[in-house]
Amino acid sequence: MAKYEHIEETEKNLNGSGLRIGMVMSRFNIEASEGLLSGCVAALTHHGVNTSDMILVTVPGALEIPVALRKLASSGKYDALVALGAVIRGETYHFEVVSNESARGVMQVQQETGVPVANGILTTENDDQAFSRMGEKGRDAGLVAIEMANLMRRLS
């Protein structure tokens, strides 16, 4: 790092105090989604986000997550958003459609609105993979939301 000592570098900031976080969760594959939510809320509260500064919106499935994210982002009320859901492979091509289009929609929301969106939508081969990853993926999404909200504030 000495080679770059004169370059200002932003530091990771996981202080969630005062941040407002919106979460959109799919009700499809609800057990995995609730596991993601549990991990996310635990990380948010552990890092200082008050539950009174969080909102949870539920939608039928992963394809509906982006439209709800866009509405929250457009409200101007939230510093960051989190997408939570589980797309588990079935026997048809539908898995690829839902996985790809939900991810595209999440990216599009943050690119078009400037509000960071942590993508906590699992895409797994089976229920066992989803259940083994849900806690950590939810936690990671919460941490990403805090870090990116603080980064956006710093860059403003």
Could you explain the architecture of this structure?
The chain has a 4-stranded parallel sheet, sandwiched between helices. 49% of the residues lie in helices and 19% in strands. The longest helix is centred in the last third of the chain and has 29 residues. It has 156 residues and is of the alpha/beta class. β1, α1 and β2 form a beta-alpha-beta unit. The model has no long low-confidence stretch (mean pLDDT 96). The protein contains 4 helices and 4 strands; from the N terminus they run βαβαβαβα.
- The whole-number mean of residue pLDDT values reads 96
First and last CA, distance: 26 Å
> Helical stretch count?
4
Q: How much helix, percentage-wise, in residues?
A: 40-55%
Shape descriptor reads globular
- As laid out across the biggest beta sheet, the strand order is 2-1-3-4
Model regions low in confidence, pLDDT < 50 over at least 5 residues:
none
Oligomeric state of the chains present here: single chain
Structural class: alpha/beta
Secondary-structure element string:
EHEHEHEH
